[in-house]
Amino acid sequence: MAHRFLSTTNRFRARFAFIFTVSLSCSYVCYSILFCRGTIMTNQGYEGKRCPPSKNAGGKKLLGKLDNCASLEVRSALDASAAQRGSNKSPDSSGSHWADMKLRNTSVAQKYGNKKLPNALIVGVKKGGTRAVLEFIRIHPDVRALGTEPHFFDRNYDRGLDWYRGLMPRTLDSQITLEKTPSYFVTREAPRRIATMSHETKLIVVVRNPVTRAISDYTQTLSKKPDIPTFEELAFKNRSLGLVDSSWNAIRIGMYILHLENWLQYFRPSQMHFVSGERLITDPAGEMEKVQDFLGLKRIITDKHFYFNRTKGFPCLKKPESSSQPRCLGKSKGRTHVQIDQEVIEQLQEFYRPFNIKFYETVGHDFKWD
To answer: Domain boundaries in the chain?
Structure first.
């Protein structure tokens, strides 16, 4: 009897162990299937969001600061720009390729770029053609420029460099940040202040025949203040004796060598590039090629980008495919000058001649204003 009871008990234990083992195995299998499926789905989701590796090794430093997917746009822009820099092909006649690249680089810079202090400045001179140079160079995809004149180094210096930096457009590491304020050239404190910001800043100065520049300056003032004295009255202390009033700002700005000597105390001549305001009208592409070389840019802006507007007497940019109109300077540019007596012009040319000669010798270029 006891033997039969023990036998029944053993069979029950064996059956329980078998059922327990099967149940445990089934649970393990189910859990494994569910776990693996979740892992696979997670990996698939990750793979779907993963960004492809960049082909542009030169952009690693910049891209390392961004998350993988956000940097895809930057990589595309850098890859396209790098491919073009390595290519010997010229821009097409419409400039549409470079216009597209400019739009792409601008869009990427606005999203992922940083606000930086400018690498280059257009520092002068007033009524020399600075607005034209700014508008022309801005079409380059590797240039981002502030459209307004911040007047930081002459009027707003007490606001500090952080305020100044905050005005700048966002740029990528491969782009140049640029601003224009023509009054810097004649501001005594400007060279020292700019050098304090950076001794390596590149400086662009647009110069023009000082007599023509003075007349243009007066014409602009007259359009705003019709009751001012005549040009002759302001330009001379004594007209009959030919004594020029060099304290009048319109005259003093054109004494370029006096202002340049101040700049050369803080900057090397190689850091300054002088654009001819006259040639900017007759050969804008030629002058802009020199500007691009000075800034270390590929020569993208060529004669294919310009046409001459006979009404304004000034070159304009051909319209990009994305625009319905060509880009010309504002109404104040190319306005008709006040008529000045030829004898007055000759007296002023004689006054400026020694200043011009010394200026030519210092910059190593004869602008042929005499």
So the answer is: 110-210+253-333
Rounded Cα gap, residues 348 and 351, in angstroms: 5
| In CATH, 110-210+253-333 is 3.40.47.40 | no
Q: Which residues are annotated as a binding site for 3'-phosphoadenylyl sulfate?
A: 127-131, 208, 216, 333-337
Residue 127 among the catalytic residues: yes
pLDDT tens digits, one per residue of 148-205: 999 999 999 999 999 999 999 999 999 999 999 999 999 999 999 999 999 999 999 9
Catalytic residue among 102, 126, 127, 202: 127
- pTM assigned to the model: 0.73
Measure the CA dihedral 52/112/97/329, to 10°: 180
Torsion of CA 176, 124, 227, 340, to 10 degrees: -130
User: Do 112 and 62 form a contact (C-beta atoms < 8 A)?
Assistant: no
